[in-house]
Every structure is written in C-alpha cells, then in structure tokens.
Amino acid sequence: MINKLVANIKKTEAPIVVGLDPMLNYIPEHVQKKAFAEYGETLEGAAEAIWQFNKAIVDSTYDLIPAVKPQIAMYEQFGIPGMQAFKKTVDYCKEKGLVVIGDIKRGDIGSTSAAYAVGHLGKVAVGNNSFAPFDEDFATVNPYLGSDGVNPFLDVCKEEKKGIFVLVKTSNPSSGEFQDQKIDGRPLYELVGEKVAAWGEEAMGDDYSYVGAVVGATYPEMGKVLRKIMPKAYILVPGYGAQGGKGKDLVHFFNEDGLGAIVNSSRGIIAAYKQEKYANFGAENFADASRAAVEDMVADIKGALGK
Amino acid sequence: MINKLVANIKKTEAPIVVGLDPMLNYIPEHVQKKAFAEYGETLEGAAEAIWQFNKAIVDSTYDLIPAVKPQIAMYEQFGIPGMQAFKKTVDYCKEKGLVVIGDIKRGDIGSTSAAYAVGHLGKVAVGNNSFAPFDEDFATVNPYLGSDGVNPFLDVCKEEKKGIFVLVKTSNPSSGEFQDQKIDGRPLYELVGEKVAAWGEEAMGDDYSYVGAVVGATYPEMGKVLRKIMPKAYILVPGYGAQGGKGKDLVHFFNEDGLGAIVNSSRGIIAAYKQEKYANFGAENFADASRAAVEDMVADIKGALGK
C-alpha cells in the first residue's frame, strides 16, 4: 500500500491528503436539513449528513488527490450510525482509487493491539469465514506502550501489505509536555523516531517503508531532524493551514527525491466555503470550494518545494 | 461517578474489575454454535456470541463486583456488529448497577479529543436533540499528546460527573521503551503521574479525583512511587493473573484507607473454565467458573491487604 500511496502521489503530483473530519458545523445547512428531513435530528440523521457531505467533497476532488484521512473520532461521536458512515466513507474512497488513512490513533498491547489491527487493516476470522471489518489502507498508531503495541500492527501490515503512521511529534501546542522531554540530552520524539526507523526496516515497500510517522507541520525544525532519523519513513504531516503550518515550513519534511511526506489539511479543505477567500462559491457549492482549496494547497506546496 | 465507584467497592468489599474482553476462543463452543446457528458464521454471529457470553458472566458475577471494563478493541474487530455488542454490554452492565470503564485508550487533540469524550462519556448534539452514544462511566485515555488531549475529556467529565484513567505505566514487557526513559534522572511515567495529579486536582469527587491512572500490577515498585505522586487518583491495575501479577504485588497500589486501587482481571475471570483449577465446572458452566474465580481473586487480594 505504501507503493500505491507513492504511485498516487506521483500521478497527481500532489503530496497532500484531505482530512475527512466532518464536524456538523462544517456541513452546510441545506445538507443537514435534507438528512434531518429523512432521518430526523437523530444519530442516523447526523450520519447521513456526514456521508452526503463527504461524498460530495470526494466526488469533487478525487482526481486531484492521492489519499484521504478520515478522523474516526468525528464518526465515533455519533455512535453506531456514525461508525456506519465511517465505513461507507472508507469504502467509497477506495472505490474512487484513493488511499485511505484511518486516523484512529489506536494503541494497546498484545492480543488487544492485534484486534485493532485486524479490525482496521486486516481480516478477522469467524468460524470458517473471514471478514475485513473496516479495511482502511493505513492506520495511525500511538507509540506510548512500546513495541508490544506496534508489533501486532506490523504483523498484519506485512500480511496485508498495508501500513501505519506512528505518532512521533504531534502538531498541537502541548505536544512538548512529554514528547520534547530530554533523555540523555535528546528529546523523546527522536527516540520514538529511531524506533519507527527500526520497526520500518523489517517491512519495506519499494522505496519507502510500511511504517511511517506523524510529525506536525507546526514544528519544522524538528521535522528536519526527524527526516534524517527516519529516511525511509513516509511522514504524515498534520497542522497545515488551520493549525498554522505553511508551505515553506514543509520543505524539510521531504527527501531529496521530492517524496517522503504527505501533508494533511482537514477543515482548510472540507470547510473551505466558510473562508472569506472562497466565500463567492456559496454554501450550495461547498464541494467546488473544496476543489479550489485543494488546487491552492497543491500550488502552495509545489511552490515551496521549487517545483 | 468516582463516588459511585468507591461506594460500589465498599459495598462489595471487592477492589476488582472484571475485564470483558471476549476473544472468540474464550467463548465455549456451545455458545458460539448457538449464535452461528442463528446468524451464520458472520460478524453478526460473532457479535451475538460475545453478547451472550458477556451476559452470562455478568449475570453470574454482578452481585460480587463493583465494576466491569469492556475492552473495545475486542468488539471493534468485529466491525459494526461488534460495536453494537459493545454498546449492548455497556447498557446491560449499567442496568445491573455496575460501573462501566470503557477501555478505549483514545487520545487525540482539541475538537477530536472532544469528539471522543462526548461519544464515550458525554452527549453529542444533533440539531435540537442530544444523544449519549456509548455512555460509559469511565474511559481510559492515552497521554502522549499532552494536556491538549486530556483537557477535552476533563471538560466532559466535569459536566457529566464521569471520569478517566490515564495510562501512566502499562503492564506490558516493552512499556519501559518510552515510559521508563529518564528525564533529569526521573522516569517519564513519574512525570505523567505528576500531570495526572495536577489534572485531577481540578476535578475532585468526595475523596478521590475524577482523574485516575493506569499502572500495571507487573511493576509493583513503580506502583509504590506512583501511589505517593498521585494520592487522590484511583489506580486501575491491569496485569493481575494471566500477565503474572499476584495479590502480594498489589499492596502498595492502595492507600492507607484500603481504597485507591481497583485491580483488573480479564481472561483469568471470563475464561476461568479453561484453567485446570476450574476445569470441573465444564464449558457448559463457564459462568459459574467465572464466579468462583471472582471469589478466589477477591480472597487473594483481601489476604494480601490483611483484611
């Protein structure tokens, strides 16, 4: 799947991923109204609004982008119907040829970690049958529990040729509370980065590993160091746009081959119609606004990379 | 809810929690067969088997125990039907008067963490309505992202009088890879413990805080130190039984009031019928074996505490 991700990025010339994190207040009123008319102001209604919103954005952008990253929390908050909308979104994006990164940030140990891994990336056995319950292409994983938490994911990744992105240095302001703490003079996130490189060595695609890393756009200097520590890891970069990261901050997340990083934007794309810059599209044409925002983001990043 | 947890523990005189982590191979064949006869060897069939297994164990033990801890991964791996079985289990345990600790180990930032918090502990708004989608009493939370990840849970906990257990020192062998790393001579888990104490100060129940901690039974010396660092935090202790922790290892996790810790056992209880010790019950009477295992576990811990 890392090979497909790289191929998709080369094809679209767009090292970006659209974060499908549909908060209800991002969804235009006419979409919500239609869903509520059918299902009421219920969890089912919310799930339908999310699904219709996602579908319109995917339909309007899929030819420009290599991948999407649905944030499962935004679906899980609507209970079972929300999880159904998550699943529907994953399936639809895959039909459209997109790589799907499940932003699930799971992390546990042993058989529990294995359960998450089969549930999201692999197949679960029931009697003589097996099923791929959520079937994303990649999942994000929290490293706090160490190798016991990551290895079960690796086993499934190797079997299914799928991948993970391990949280190394997150984009939020308080990420330093633990991640920046110095161990023998070096921050914890470097240690985690070294582990990512080691875990990744045993699961290589053609040029990059099945094991990637999450490093926030908001910390470009740290990104530069981590790029060197994990040369074969694809870096998933959140924090662009709404969280403050800009194209020029991203240069050092990439390798010299122009690859190695994929930059996420969520509300900057999916709620673009709410920005002054794209206001002329109007809420009715929110999906066209998202397309324009994708084009602008790609241009910004290409410009920064000198392409 | 921390007050209810303490009250339940005093009433039952059992500082334990039963981990409802129903792997299919723990579930007796007759239960699986019946579920598969009705729903086929499908995700629905697996979910039904899990639910019937859980229900029997809860019916057989609820009067002896204060709380249960369903591990969501074991349900999530069976997709949507699995999540429905999780929800059904949570609801049923609450009907029985048990405190429900959702072992979800979620952790994200800002609005995403808030989405997990409302989805699992609070209420989510849809139009003019609001819903409590999963509605556990407590949730476990991963601290790697710092305060930005924990505060949204705290906001919901204060509003709903619910609680969280933050991963501090986990029970697994590789937990030390990051958690034991020394920062100015002190391990990371102590730093996390200090944060737990600080987060907990602003959300106090009568004697204990809404903010608890997870510390593995397999590291009793660390538990002793952490007990002092977080005097008002309830400690959820995994790793008893199958993972190697014994009653005598647990003494220092408790405060002098005999409270302050709740010890989890999962497969040691729910799959007790598979142990030589309880083999005479037979698979047909698996729930009775679980009851006997609960009684033995309570006696072991009481003995260790000198009660």
What is the strand and helix layout of this fold?
2 copies of one chain form a homodimer.
Chain A (H helix, E strand, L loop, with lengths): L1 H11 L3 E3 L10 H11 L3 H19 L5 E2 L4 H4 L2 H17 L3 E8 L3 H11 L3 E3 L2 E3 L6 E4 L5 H14 L2 E7 L6 H4 L2 E2 L2 E2 H14 L9 E5 L4 H10 L5 E3 L23 E5 L1 H4 L15 H19 L3
Helix pairs in contact in A: 2-3, 3-5, 3-12, 6-7
Mean pLDDT of chain A: 96
Q: Would you report the number of β strands of chain A?
A: 12
Instruction: Please trace the helix and strand order of chain A, writing H or E for each element.
Output: HEHHEHHEHEEEHEHEEHEHEEHH
Shape of chain A: globular
Structural class of chain A: alpha/beta
Please state the CA-atom Rg of chain A, rounded to the nearest Å. Answer: 19 Å
Which protein chains make the most extensive interface, counting residues with beta carbons within 8 Å of the other chain's beta carbons?
A-B, 72 and 72 residues
Q: Report how far the terminal alpha carbons of chain A are from each other.
A: 26 Å
Weakly predicted, low-confidence segments of chain A: none
In terms of quaternary structure, the protein is homodimer
